[in-house]
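User: Could you check the structure of this?
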Amino acid sequence: QVQLVESGGGLVQAGGSLRLSCADSGRTFSSYGMGWFRQAPGKEREFVAMISRSGGNAFYADSVKGRFTISRDNAKNTVYLQMNSLKPEDTAVYYCAAHVGGSVYPTGSYQYWGQGTQVTVSS
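Assistant: Sure, the predicted structure tokens are below.
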């Protein structure tokens, strides 16, 4: 069973950086590709990034490409999201989830969602 806990959110000024972590307390972490999503108030949850099981492939939303980097450490059962050059429009609750099949972009391709961590970027 996958149990995910996100951490690392906070308040940062525009142009700053944060690194989010998502740790799995289960034993099957390396069996899943892992994704990051975000949800701003009044908006739908949207895809941010996804990394394959081995870490050899990564996918990004156009809005974060070149600024965010997803990585994983299977020995630590943890996936990371390094966020640089943050913008106020990046403000949202960020969630990690396990990819269980299909396209990497829709939320329906993921299960075992974490509780989320708040990221707030001030202008």
